[in-house]
Design brief:
With about 350 residues, this protein is mostly beta strands. The chain folds into two domains: about 180 residues, Jelly Rolls (Sandwich); about 150 residues, Jelly Rolls (Sandwich). It is about 10% helix and about 40% strand. It is elongated. Belongs to the 11S seed storage protein (globulins) family.
Length: about 350
């Protein structure tokens, strides 16, 4: 069966004065289900507030613009952390955390989330469970249970349950006071791409930044790693694949590129152009290449391995370069002068 890897834009799930949440669905992109990954985008306008919630998937977020305060309660942590996120920050959120999000700035805040949906209610989609609002998980309980659990009478129980008509997001009438972020609270959880220190120059122009548990410790709690790549105008990410069988979920931050993916039986499964806002997937063991457009391209991605090993199929570090020339001559059925174009190591 042919696999559909067509890049897609997100679809809005909920939109109010305070902002919107949009997502990619496994129903629209079955490859997300197959690779058990998912994605979404949260946009908060000034004074926008995302109600307290937890998710069914560990995920990572990249701040596209603006700033926001984030309340975070980690599994086993007795206290709430308050973090300040700004453009270029990456946050790692393991399973079993509770968060709220608040735009305390004067411009829009937006963040893209990429996650591992292996244990999700519906693999391929990240689901959220809210503790307040009209979709609160408390709405699924009887009034008798809520009265007993909260230790209150029916009138107060109804007021607690029904006073917030908002769904996912609301817009506050005034600023939240007394909520202050702490740099200590963000340690090991948030890292700006400019401080990652694990960047490498790409052979054909650009750079890649790897985020692993060594520079973002919270990634040790999830089953994926993070990659941020910047391709210079018309530069190429050499054809290659992840050796250990990891899939890569890619969100295009800005710019554009020509993308080609080769799959089983030497068949091309994708040849297309991608641009800002599009999401696409490179399945495990499939080989992919990207050639940036005239403005270059930046992307944010997760790789479904904590220690991925990307192996180039061409270029100075090509996997073919590890083979003896005689082997390559036989395998490709070509003369020695053509084998030299592949750049193999000299035989001994």
């Amino acid at each position: 069966m042919a696999v559909d890897l067509s890049p897609k834009l997100s679809k809005k799930i909920s939109e109010v004065d305070g902002g919107f949440y949009a997502a990619w669905s496994g129903a629209d992109q079955p490859a997300l289900i197959d690779s058990k990954v998912g994605a979404g985008i949260l946009v908060l306008k000034p004074l926008g507030f995302a109600l307290p919630h937890y998710a069914d998937s560990p995920k990572s977020g990249y701040v596209l613009q603006g700033r926001a305060l984030v309340g975070l309660v980690l599994s086993g942590d007795p206290k709430e952390r308050v973090l300040l996120l700004k453009k270029g920050d990456v946050i790692a959120l393991p399973l079993g955390n509770l968060t709220w999000w608040y735009n305390d700035g004067d411009t829009d805040f937006s963040i893209v989330f990429l996650g591992d949906t292996s244990n999700a209610v519906h693999p391929g989609d990240i689901a959220y469970f809210f503790l307040a609002g009209s979709l609160s998980i408390f709405n699924g309980f009887s009034m008798e249970v809520l009265k007993k659990a909260w230790g209150v009478g029916e009138e107060k129980a109804r007021k607690l349950l029904k006073s917030q008509p908002g769904v996912l997001l609301i817009k506050l009438k005034e600023r939240l006071h007394g909520i202050k972020p702490s740099e200590a609270d963000a340690e090991g959880i948030v890292l700006n791409i400019n401080h990652a220190h694990l960047g490498t120059r790409l052979e054909k122009g650009g750079y890649a930044i790897a985020m692993r548990s060594v520079n973002l410790p919270m990634l040790g709690e999830v089953r994926f790693s993070i990659n941020f790549t910047n391709l210079e105008p018309n530069a190429m990410r050499m054809p290659g694949f992840f050796f250990e069988g990891a899939a890569q979920l890619i969100y295009v931050i800005k710019g554009s590129a020509h993308v080609e993916i080769s799959g089983t039986d030497g068949k091309g499964v994708l040849e297309t152009e991608v641009k800002e806002g599009y999401l696409f997937l490179v399945p495990k063991f499939f080989a992919a290449t990207m050639i940036a457009g005239d403005e270059g391209m930046e992307w944010f991605s997760i790789i479904t391995s904590q220690k991925p090993e990307f192996r180039q199929l061409t270029g100075a570090t090509s996997l073919l370069n590890t083979l003896a020339p005689q082997v390559l001559e036989t395998a490709f059925n070509v003369t020695p002068d053509l084998v030299k174009l592949l750049g193999p190591k000299e035989s001994t």
